[in-house]
Amino acid sequence: MKKGHLLAPLFMSLCFSVQAWAQPAASKEECVIKCHEAAALINVKGLAEAVKEIGDAKGPFVWKDSYVFLMNLDGKMLAHPMQPELTQLPHCLLITDPTDKAIFVSFVNTARNAGQGWVEYMWPRPGQRTPSKKITYIYRVPGKDLFVAAGVYVGGMMY
How much is the pTM? Predict the structure, then answer.
């Protein structure tokens, strides 16, 4: 037997072990896809069902180190799987990041004015308290005063 034939299974095994060990981070492309899926869900199943699915921390809109959340154009959080307490607020417009950026105002303005786009800010990774740099894709649900959003953390170690 040639050396290459002996090393190939070992190499493949090592690759799969490393891949299983390291949880990959969400990509910007996945955020866009998940947001479009969530918007379609709203239009197909209605707002009440979408709020349940999007707000479910073990549901299909939570993956890797990202998640989709749902808001209206008044700044009211309707569904947030990682911080459901945000849905209890009358609105989120006064919440700022550590740099004093009114992030939810930026989200609403992006949805209202452009219909979609990216917003950069600081936000804690799920399960952590220290904020990290994050960019979030905002997508207005066609024909509705609602938007969905999902983001990726920029740089640093993934949890």
Answer: 0.82
